[in-house]
Specification:
The protein is α+β, with helices and mostly antiparallel strands. The chain is built from 19 helices and 10 strands. Helix 8 packs parallel to helix 11 and helix 11 packs antiparallel against helix 13. It has 4 domains: about 120 residues, Butyryl-Coa Dehydrogenase, subunit A, domain 1 (Orthogonal Bundle); about 110 residues, Beta Barrel (Butyryl-CoA Dehydrogenase, subunit A, domain 2); about 160 residues, Butyryl-CoA Dehydrogenase, subunit A, domain 3 (Up-down Bundle), CATH 1.20.140; about 160 residues, Butyryl-CoA Dehydrogenase, subunit A, domain 3 (Up-down Bundle), CATH 1.20.140. The strands form 2 sheets. Strands 1, 2, 3, 4, 5, 6, 7 and 8 form an 8-stranded mixed sheet that branches. Helix content is about 55%, strand content about 10%. The longest helix has about 35 residues.
């Protein structure tokens, strides 16, 4: 493991270099302005969305567009857009905070996220000056609503397998689109769409399409398991006439738009799911405190305390990872702008630099929310299965998050794939550290930690988790070489090791920084959450590592690597039951997620 002489890490470098807690952004560092923005979003949900959640789910005509218009009037749809296009020009951390704060708004959150993300950003980042001036101010204000058409009946994860075609008209003034798109969020009411088609059957290209273009029709609203209040339709193109001026980006370069937008979308989805998990926890807390069984609140029972604490500490850890990455992207964007890159290239370049981390966050956040709502229903008992309680809506609405923005399976495969490709291109030195760890396995193991520095044992544990990943991944690459991509089960195990390690390290960086600010005695709550998460992560990494090793190693190599996994996931004994009790009691006394 390298000791970083510089605290500025590139994407993926956290795996091979030490991170500095003092260069790690934590939520406790929000500015007063950022907190005000967050409060505005929370007030909007409390006053405008929650009281009419049933009406939204029934899809009252014109209701969702009117809510987006109200959000636009408050500036919530243009927080990160440049002021010259009607936005507020705020930084990436602030826009992430908006995504989190609005994330508990059920179907409204989906509509708002689609509008501000895939509905607006492709035009902002890839449009000509004329296109940006025409569309972005209207999208920023909410006057026009945005949507995005990529998925087709036979192309989901394989986006480039799209069949929709575009050919130039005989007079050279229009492209004629023919085909179909499905699962189009905001599709039923949007005014402007970014749609992908293949020019001449092979040049994957993006187009800006307005509602009312000749040859463009929309299907009926889909009946979905969850997010029922969000508009989801199919789009049909039959010789749809799109002006040549509405080509977005370059002919044949549509994949650049589609894939670059995904990086930001994955991080923002994590933000929304973290916000949703906190709201689900608040619902569960309120119910547990007021619901009595056996002549006492169910919040008094250890089993319920365990559930409440587990949701809280997972949300806290995911939040730690989320804002760590958001600030990395923010800093990289600033660096690129200072080096002369235009705004759009700086934002996309920064997001691409941390594409690995964005994939980690997408998986982390979506699975956090699923866990939070599932435990929420269980805490509510039979009432959790009733539509009279919002937790049932939260449960249904959560499930989609593991599917869009790239399924979690695809994202897990991408985490390892991107790391290996960067290593082969010289962007990330993985094989050197991996080889040195194999040599370390032949040495006498060091099972003790003599250093009494604050949190030294936890720092040692994180360093060892990374060694377990590098050892396993390095051996798998040596075994399979180019054929590793076919060993998806092994790749997913390695990705799971990386997700747990990155999250645990983010939690530790946050606690160390807080300790330097407040003192160790003042952060018992945070320390309990970090140590509990880290202790459980060690067991998970051990399991993932053993499953991966047993899938490809045999004989002495297998024995040596299994011993390495055991050695690298060894942690000090810790009473997680007592820690969870303390966490739960703090939550119950506050009556809500208070951090």
């Amino acid at each position: 493991m390298e000791t970083s002489q510089t605290t500025v890490l590139k994407g993926g470098e956290w795996l091979i270099k030490e991170s500095s807690p003092f260069e790690t952004f934590i939520p406790e560092e929000y500015t007063e302005e950022q907190q005000m923005v967050k409060d505005t979003c929370c007030d909007f949900l409390d006053n405008e969305i929650m009281p009419i959640a049933d009406r939204i789910d029934k899809m009252e005509q014109g209701l969702m567009p009117s809510l987006l218009t109200k959000a636009g009037e408050l500036g919530l749809l243009g927080v990160s857009l440049p002021e010259e296009f009607g936005g507020l020009g705020k930084d990436f951390v602030t826009s992430t905070l908006v995504s989190e704060a609005l994330g508990g708004g059920f179907s409204f959150s989906v509509a708002a996220s689609a509008h501000t993300g895939i509905g607006t950003l492709p035009i902002l980042y890839f449009g000509t000056e004329e296109q940006k001036q025409k569309y972005v101010p209207r999208l920023a204000s909410g006057e026009w609503k945005g949507s995005y058409g990529l998925t087709e009946p036979n192309s989901g994860s394989d986006a480039l397998g799209a069949k929709t075609t575009a050919r130039l008209s005989e007079d050279g003034k229009h492209y004629l689109l023919n085909g179909q798109k499905i699962w189009i969020t905001n599709g039923g009411f949007a005014d402007v769409y970014t749609v992908f088609a293949k020019v001449d059957g092979d040049k994957f290209t993006a187009f800006i399409i307005e509602r009312g273009f000749e040859g463009f029709t929309r299907g009926q609203e889909e009946h979905k398991m969850g997010i029922k209040g969000s508009s989801t339709v199919q789009l049909y193109f039959q010789d749809c006439k799109v002006p040549v001026a509405n080509v977005l980006g370059e002919i044949g370069k549509g994949h650049i738009i589609a894939f670059n937008i995904l990086n930001i979308g994955r991080l923002k989805l994590c933000a929304a799911t973290v916000g949703g998990a906190k709201r689900a926890l608040d619902m569960s807390l309120k119910y547990a405190i007021t619901r009595e069984q056996f002549k006492q609140p169910i919040s008094n029972f250890g089993a319920i305390k365990h559930k409440l604490a587990e949701v809280a500490l997972r949300a806290w850890a995911a939040e730690s990872a989320l804002y760590r990455v958001a600030k990395w992207i923010d800093n990289k964007e600033t660096e690129l702008v200072n080096n002369g890159k235009p705004f759009n290239e700086a934002v996309l370049g920064a997001a691409e630099e941390f594409a690995i981390e964005c994939a980690i966050l997408k998986v982390l956040g979506s699975e956090l929310l699923d866990f939070a709502v599932d435990e929420g229903v269980q805490i509510h008992g039979g009432n959790g299965y009733s539509d009279e309680y919002m937790i049932s809506r939260a449960y249904r609405d959560s499930r989609i998050n593991r599917i869009y923005e790239g399924t979690n399976e695809i994202n897990r495969l991408l985490i390892v794939d991107m790391m290996l490709k960067r290593s082969m291109k010289g962007r990330l030195n993985l094989m050197g550290p991996a080889m040195s760890i194999q040599k370390e396995l032949m040495s006498i193991p060091d099972f003790g930690v003599e250093d009494e520095e604050l949190f030294s044992k936890e720092l040692k544990a994180i360093a060892n988790f990374k060694k377990a990943i590098l050892m396993t991944a390095g051996a798998a690459v040596q075994k399979f070489m180019a054929k590793l991509e076919s060993e998806q089960e092994i790749i997913i195990n390695i990705s799971n090791m990386a997700i747990e390690t990155f999250t645990a390290e983010s939690a530790l960086m946050r606690v160390i920084k807080l300790a330097s600010i407040k003192g160790e005695a003042a952060i018992q709550y945070e320390t309990d959450m970090m140590r509990t998460y880290l202790t459980d992560a060690a067991d998970k990494i051990n399991k993932y590592g053993k499953d991966a090793v047993n899938a490809f190693a045999e004989g002495d190599e297998q024995k040596m690597m299994l011993l390495g996994i055991k050695r690298f996931t060894k942690t000090e004994p810790y009473n997680t039951k007592a820690a969870r009790r303390r966490i739960a009691e703090r939550l119950i006394s506050e009556g809500r997620y208070a951090l």
